[in-house]
Design brief:
Blueprint lengths: L4 H7 L1 H20 L9 H9 L5 H13 L14 H16 L1 H8 L3 H34 L9 H29 L4 H26 L7 H22 L1 E9 L1 E4 L2 E4 L2 E7 L6 H19 L5 H9 L5 H22 L2 H10 L2 E2 L8 H24 L1 H9 L3 H6 L3 H23 L13 E2 L1
Parallel strand pairs: 1-6
Antiparallel strand pairs: 1-4, 1-5, 2-3
Helix pairs in contact: 2-8, 5-6, 5-7, 5-11, 6-7, 7-8, 7-11, 8-9, 9-18, 10-18, 11-12, 11-13, 13-15, 14-15
């Protein structure tokens, strides 16, 4: 029992405190996800979504609920989750690349703090826009189900709902920051992870209910096949996430003062999927904003109805756009986090070289290696991301189960789990305890 990694996790005080703090924050997040905003009849609302026929509106509600962990259909104070914050981050990251003046400001002393402040302000603006669209969506539900909104004064309800939802979204961002600073794992990713996990019991119940229904088109054989397929995909995702390309680097010996330093051989580990699950999260967040606006305001303008039809999560165009966005964000995020120019500069300044590569060709070589890794990695991500749509259409699975048991959710679950395990592993090793493997989380050399 002394070498049991689970026991070791609780024996290390620092790790134990971080884990308990993370669980406490996640509990607060889940509590906010079930607290309905003032003015909404929760019972009528749940009945409306339970009886909602399959179609564009059902697909939209399931899609929004997927990232909010069930908070969207409840119209809870956390119904927007962290997606407005991620959307704003994307916009600012693109702006830093497009506008050199903004990039210079970000690189100055205190520049990152200014960028963070801009992100917070931008998140509030995005939240106000999305929450205003939510009030329109709530009004349309109230027309279909009279009594869903209990306030007669619509202006009062709209203002109250906008302020509540905006405040709730900013609180979720703050909760995520607390996990990142004082807990385990990346806070924003952990909140999305918790939302997905929280939806699984109800999704499994929906699937069982559909299988038992006499009018159901779901065959038990399809369920077994899909389950086996998901197990295979999980194995492939873990295999792909742990794959690395090791670039050897040799450092020449140098004399500094009276000491001889350098002369070591090391390597640069490039993961086969350098950006992890970030392209999936970014692409989903990028599509969530126009999807919600178009669906909420579709009844107000004809062109919005067309946009809503194009952005139907079960439609062909939506999945094509999602695939293209995943590939784009895979390249974009990798260039931001793994800049070949900076890596080559650091190698040269420290007297290093890559065997068989001229010093002035180091940057070009690293860029070529990254491009060869990013393309298959991003295509792999895109392929897995569209699996829920294929499963839902071919096997007639409920949207709740198809979205939670594959595609985006599967990548997020595996990616966040591996990253969190890596942090736990590092803390255990630092305190001289065995981790989940004798030599840490192993990576395969490609």
């Amino acid at each position: 029992m002394a070498n049991n990694p689970i026991v070791n996790m609780f024996k290390v005080r620092e790790l134990r405190v971080k884990m308990l703090f993370t669980l406490l924050i996640l509990a607060v997040f889940r509590l906010g996800s079930v607290l309905t905003i003032p003015g909404i009849n929760a019972t009528l609302l749940l009945q409306y979504f339970d009886t909602l026929a399959s179609g564009a509106e059902s697909a939209f509600a399931s899609y929004m609920d997927f990232f909010a962990g069930g908070a969207f259909e409840r119209f809870s104070v956390f119904m927007l989750g962290v997606m407005p914050y991620i959307s704003t981050q994307i916009i600012l990251q693109l702006a830093l690349v497009i506008f050199p003046s903004l990039k210079r400001i970000a690189q100055e002393e205190g520049g990152q703090q200014r960028v963070q402040a801009w992100t917070r302000v931008g998140t509030i603006i995005v939240c106000l826009i999305q929450s205003a669209a939510i009030t329109v969506y709530a009004d349309s539900i109230n027309q279909a189900v009279p009594g869903a909104i209990i306030f007669d004064n619509k202006v009062f309800f709209n203002v109250l709902a906008i302020l509540t939802v905006t405040t709730g979204s900013m609180i979720t961002v703050w909760l995520g920051d607390q996990i990142t600073a004082r807990g385990i794992g990346n806070g924003i990713s952990m909140l999305i992870f918790a939302g997905i996990v929280a939806r699984m019991p109800s999704a499994i119940y929906d699937l069982i209910r559909e299988v038992r229904s006499d009018s159901s088109e779901i065959n038990m054989v399809f369920v077994i096949v899909a389950f086996l397929m998901y197990l295979v995909i999980i194995g492939l995702v873990v295999y792909e996430q742990s794959g690395v390309r090791k670039i050897p680097v040799n450092y020449a010996k140098r004399v500094v003062g009276r000491r001889m330093i350098g002369g070591q051989n090391t390597y640069i580990p490039f993961k086969i999927n350098p950006s992890g699950v970030i392209p999936i999260i970014f692409a989903s967040a990028f599509l969530t904003f126009p999807l919600q606006i178009a669906n909420s305001l579709a009844g107000r303008a004809t062109w919005l109805m067309k946009v809503s039809a194009v952005l139907n999560p079960l439609g062909v165009w939506y999945n094509i756009i999602e695939v293209l966005l995943i590939i784009f964000f895979a390249y974009f995020y990798t260039q931001v986090t793994l800049n070949p120019t900076e890596i080559a500069k650091n190698i040269r300044e420290n007297g290093g070289s890559i065997p068989g590569i001229r010093t002035d060709k180091t940057e070009e070589y690293l860029q070529r290696v990254l491009n060869r890794l990013i393309l298959p990695g991003s295509l792999y991500l895109a392929l897995i991301a569209i699996i829920p749509t294929v499963v839902q259409i071919l096997f007639k699975f409920p949207a709740s189960i198809s979205m939670l048991m594959g595609g985006t959710s599967l990548l997020i679950l595996v990616g966040v789990d591996l990253d969190t395990m890596a942090q736990v592993e590092a803390l255990l090793k630092m305190h001289h305890h065995d981790g989940f493997t004798k030599k840490g989380l192993k990576s395969r050399n490609l």
